Structures are given as C-alpha cells and as structure tokens.
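Onboarding guide, step 5: your first structure request.
Type a short instruction followed by the sequence, for example:

Predict the 3D structure of this protein.
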Amino acid sequence: MPGNFLTPLTVSVIIPVYNEVTNIARVIGEIKALPPDPAYTLEILVVDGGSKDGTVEAARSAGARVLPQKERGYGAACYTGFEASTTEIVVFLDGDYSDPPASLPALLAPLVDNRADLVLGTRIGSLTGSGAGRDALPAQAVWGNRLVTGLIRLLYGYKLSDLPSFKAIRRKKLAAFGMQEMTYGWTTEMLVKAVRSKYRVVEVPVAYRPRGGGKSKVSGTVRGTLKAAYFLLRTTFRYTRWQPLA
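The system replies with structure tokens like these:
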C-alpha cells in the first residue's frame, strides 16, 4: 500500500566518516540538492571517527548534524547514528563520494510503498566490470564480495548480489536484530539476520563511483583488505544458528 503523503515518513541518512574532508561536503550537498518529495523528510547525521583533517567542520558547514563515534569500527559508527536517530527509516551511505545520493529516492521508494523491509543499493556495474561504476571497486573487493555472497547463498539459502554500504531499512526492523558487529561485519550481520527473519529484501542497482579523493581505509591497503575479509567471513558463519525473536 503506498505511503500516506499527508504524513511523510521521516528518514535519517547516516554517514560514517574518518578523514573525508575532500568528499563530505560534496556528499551532503548532493543529498540537499535532491528534489523535495512529499513522501518523506530527510535529516543528515554524520558520524565522525576522530577525523583530524577538518571533516567535522566541513560537515557542519554543509548543514549536517555531526556525532562523535562511540567506539572504533565501521559498525560502531553505523550504530552510533542508528541510536541517535528517531526516524522511521534509516539509510546508511558512505562519506567517500562513492555511494550516489541521486539514487536515494529509488532506495526509499520500496519502503515508502511498503514493498520492502530492507533495500540494498547494489553495485552491479562495479561487480560485473561493465556499465556505470565498472572501475570503482578494486579486484580484491570484487572477489571478496563474491565469496561472502556465495557463502550466504550456501549457508542461508538466499541469493544476494552485493554487500553494499548504501542501504535503507525501517528503524524498528533493524532494532529487532540486536546488532552486535561493530566492525566491517555490520552489513553482513544485517543481511543474514534479514534473511533469517524472512524480511522482504529488494535490490536497487546504483551507479557506484570511485571515491572522490583520499585513500580507502579498507581496500586501499593490504592490511585493511585482510582485516575486512576476516570480519566479513567470521560474521557470515557466526549467525547460522541465530533465530529472530517471536
């Protein structure tokens, strides 16, 4: 049933950052430049992991609310934003310019129309090496993604195309998961618990982009890549016995 536009849904766009002064104002600017939609209202929450390069000041100047990250880790940043939000829908989007805010309306549409519980902004072009975004992901990220999505299909019986950073979910649905992974395993935990909960998962292709500047904290180094791979694989196996609350 389509959303009631007389009472717009409230949406928090949560952006984890660490030393992204080159990119964060551009990302916030693109979100603010989106045409108004009567179906929802947006707030922007930037969660900072201790940046030293002026990221916080740039985010505030661009019009975002900035929150200090409570503990280290990508999942901890996402959880900080989730805890601070009071909206009906939360969106997670990276602050390095790679996730395109122009796709935000497409991600929200299945939630507004009550056709989904979780919507994933899948990086199809980057994963297949064709079309928009084909050069945006390094080879090790592509292969790691394929490995984990393959294991999810094997262990949980559900076929996913991607483990994207860009995703939208109803806040109450996410709260029911009791999220534990404060590391790079955050997205994997969310996906496997959504599958185990029989949530309606919708994938929306997005035109993923190369980061706007700076160096990736994950795929930019061998250590970062191996660390992320460890947490992704550990999380994939960790929740095979998890059951949703009645």
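Each response can be followed by summary notes, for example: The beta strands are 9-17, 40-48, 65-68, 89-92, 118-122, 167-170, 201-205.
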